[in-house]
Amino acid sequence: MRGETTELLLENLTKLLKLPTIRQQYRSLAREAEERNLSYEAYLLALLEQEQTVREANQRQQKLQRAAFPIRKTLDTFDFHLLPSLNRNRVMTLAQGEFVQKKENVLMLGNSGTGKTHLAIAIGMQMVQEGFRVRFITAANLVEELLVAKEEHRLLNMEKQWLKYDVVICDELGYVPFSRAGAELLFQFFSSRYERGSSILTSNLDFAEWTQVFGDEKLTAALLDRLTHRAHILMMNGDSHRFRQSLQRRAQEEHDA
CB–CB of 11/3 below 8 Å? Predict the structure, then answer.
């Protein structure tokens, strides 16, 4: 009877203290501790380590979901040989996360199809593994969200929510030109993150061409001044990976035919 009462108390206490892993594993670990003649302290340590391991894994999974990556990409699947101008060691150093701790930015510039989005996501996923809060969004969608937030008088609250992210990945800047209002809101967004959080931006345009997107030379210059201060700039011009793969598929199909 005492054993049943003890188990019932353990069930209730582990639920109350929100220790689900301990609740699930205390019996099996107790048997293992008995077989190995472990001390009470060693048994307790094993229980707590299991709880912490599962909790950290769950937190990483939650952060991955909140990051809203459109697809999962990793650094080990990025083919650096196809882009010899890109310094692999520099990228791997960035993936260690020091730029996030220093609240620095990473800007990836290059023509379409060279793997900018892949690399941005891969670094972002690595930052999640390092425990940072990351969020992915395209530049067009970000501007749309900012415009809606302004219309609904919740712009300040939205910016506060975004500042909770250690890294914001803004993809495809330059593919769609913005309205004057959209450009000003995007400028305000990145200005608010200046030295308060890191950003990773990808663009198919050189800096000199950004005026085409923002429509104002002074606004563009002011934005670039903030973004490039203490930033890591990766030039990723080269042959399009997608175009190369398309040619390879076509050649294979012709060969098979």
Answer: no
CATH 3.40.50.300 fits 75-244, yes or no: yes
Amino acid symbol at 194:
Y
256, amino acid identity: D
Q: Kindly report, as residue ranges, where domains of CATH 3.40.50.300 are found in the chain.
A: 75-244
Whole-prediction pTM: 0.81
Query: Can you give the C-alpha Rg of the chain in angstroms?
Result: 24
CA neighbours closer than 13 Å in the CB half-sphere of residue 188:
16
Token pair listed for 67: 């990051």
* Burial class of residue 229 (count of CB atoms within 10 Å of its CB; 0-12, 13-18, 19+): exposed
List pLDDT tens digits, range 216-250. 999 999 999 999 998 999 999 877 655 445 535 55
